[in-house]
Specification:
The structure is a homodimer of 342-residue chains. Chain A is an alpha/beta fold. The first copy, chain A, is built from twelve helices and twelve strands. The structure holds a DNA duplex (30 and 30 nucleotides).
Chain lengths: 342, 342
DNA sequence: CAAGCTTGCTCAATCGATGAAGCAGAATTG
DNA sequence: CAATTCTGCTTCATCGATTGAGCAAGCTTG
């Protein structure tokens, strides 16, 4: 295909192609961007140019192309992390759906750093995104202000903001459902009436707060009093969970609501270490999904966030008319083990 | 900060700022891109322009800026998938290191589709990447040709190619080490001399082939004969593993080499279903890492690929001089359970 | 066969940022 | 005080693709 490939070569431009084909740059441009029929370029010339472009490995310069167009068709998303199932799936789904809508997705990972978050948003604006998805942004309203000044639409994802439309999981409802399930199983399998222990996350965290709300609501609906010590918002990491459990006074209730698989990792480690005979004598559920964690014998259910549903809603908002700062809560999916255990 | 934010606004340009500040566009440009000292713009004017830019939420138009510069400082990477730990970690690490090197990372996910792979590479070229990382590309040489024509450097990652430098895990050595470990534990804990069963992956797959090579080599080093049926390259998915195990004739050897955590999921499911009393009577290892899988009682070790090391090598190649199509194999990390089991 | 339409192109302005070259006016020097 | 240097700007061409306007040749039509 390529003549004599080698580094240090200049990328061919429409001017190069025009000279080689003995025609004008605008004819080349029209042929290569598909507007040639409209611009009455003959099939013959079009064929010649296309073939030449193929030979030279021509690729448009978007920098030049987009400078001239008024819409870029680029959708940007900032993401806190990739290396966990939830945000990884978000990133992947976002890409696929953007492409299906004829847009070009650009993502950037902010490492949960609020300053980087803002800089990343500005960088994406500089790439002339038509639209920005602020995924898990700690200060979405600051980003919304920036985008408003640039006339760029924003949608918040995973964490809500007040200045743009927001799509999140229905953390409250999901947590309430899961809490009821764990309470049911504690009662049926172990004869334990509650309350459960909530572990993991940060109380200041919006989603954790909503989940704690659901956790409390489920207890309230059953008339179970919930002492303050029943909420251990000790952070997410396995180590923090282990240390929090070590530091806890009093007997461990046999029912646990674990706020993420990361935390569950610490919980399992702690159980294996500190409660040698725990097998079969605990019931827990986790707000997050992991295939191996789902197979742990005393795990009675996991909440999986509906990533596809959330991304679909995001694109509906992007395509839809002028966005009001509404908050859409997407129901979560409860995953229970295939067979009942005893 | 912003006056009256609202959609449909035009992004401010240096021309807008120049008019508002009563100065020329090039002064504004110089101030905003930091070259103002060199261009002898007064501190006073610089301050005025900077303040104005802040007020209006100005962000450079990279399309225009990059069109004028000769290097873009954009590094592109194509990735097969995000939603697994390995490629998720790759993506995240790639971003972080690119930023640390003062480059802007752009990634695009190819869904393991060879055609999309090529199109994605072309799209990244259109974004004027200075350098492209072809991660897990099924046809890296085709991409290398395309890039050579554009004078863009390529580095292959995870899967090697012949026309550009390649960085992969040392799959052979990793698999050999893991095989020896499993054989040791089979002998010591269960009195089983081998051979093991290899399960998962596709034999045509470069990395699987290398791992099978390591698996064979370990057996050969111990003088253990390895029948053909000991290699079950049945694909990666849990279902395929389950079905392959169902279809297998003869007794299951007590030692397994599992080629990925995805496959392990199926293996564990099958064991739970088809071998009720398997606990404590099996030893297996997995070429891949997952925190929960690591806690499975009969799992004697997992191979974690050294993502940080691989990405570091990739950037060393990017920064380094003219790249020869050498193949660098990065050693894997063996992760064994913290406490010996019996 | 002149007037008008169609076909198949080319011309030239434009998008926003950049930076070499240039140009007043002030400051310094001999 | 003329010559030179320095300061602090401005002017303008440029990057590559796009697109409205224009133009020459060929074809219709009355």
């Amino acid at each position: 295909m390529t003549d004599t490939p080698g580094p240090g070569r200049k990328r061919p431009t429409i001017y190069d192609l025009a000279e080689l084909a003995g025609t004008s740059p605008s004819a080349v441009s029209a042929v290569l961007n598909g507007s040639w029929k409209k611009r009455r370029i003959s099939e013959k010339l079009a064929g010649r140019i296309t073939a030449l472009a193929g030979e030279l490995g021509y690729a448009v310069n978007y920098q030049a192309s987009l400078l001239r167009r008024e819409r870029s068709n680029i959708v940007g998303m900032i993401v806190p992390k990739y290396d966990n199932r939830y945000f990884g799936a978000m990133a992947e789904r976002f890409e696929a759906v953007a492409r299906a809508h004829g847009m070009f997705p650009v993502m950037t990972c902010t490492q949960r750093d609020p300053e980087l978050e803002f800089e990343a948003a500005r960088a994406l604006l500089s790439y002339q995104v038509d639209c920005l998805v602020a995924n898990g942004a700690t200060d979405p309203d600051r980003i919304a202000d920036l985008c408003a000044a640039a006339g760029v639409r924003v949608v918040n994802l995973d964490l809500p903001g007040s200045k743009a439309a927001s799509v999140t999981s229905d953390n409250f409802a999901g947590a309430k459902t899961l809490t009821h399930l764990i309470l049911d199983r504690c009662r049926d399998d172990l004869g334990h009436a509650g309350p459960l222990l909530f572990i993991g996350g940060r109380a200041g965290d919006h989603n954790t707060a909503e989940r704690i709300g659901g956790f409390r609501a489920a207890h309230a609906e059953r008339g179970i009093a919930l002492p303050e010590e029943a909420i251990l918002a000790c952070g997410y990491s396995p180590d923090k969970a282990e240390r929090a459990l070590d530091a806890r006074a009093g007997a461990l209730p046999p029912g646990l609501f674990v706020n993420s698989t990361i935390t569950l990792e610490g919980v399992v480690r702690w159980l294996n270490r500190a409660v040698p005979d725990h097998a079969g004598r605990m019931r827990y559920g986790c707000f997050d999904y992991d295939a191996f964690a789902a197979q742990l014998p005393d795990n009675v259910g996991m909440i999986e966030q509906d990533v596809d549903g959330m991304i679909a809603k995001v694109f509906a908002l992007i395509e839809g008319g002028p966005a009001s700062p509404a908050h859409f809560r997407i129901p979560c999916i409860l995953r229970t083990p295939p067979l009942p255990r005893g």
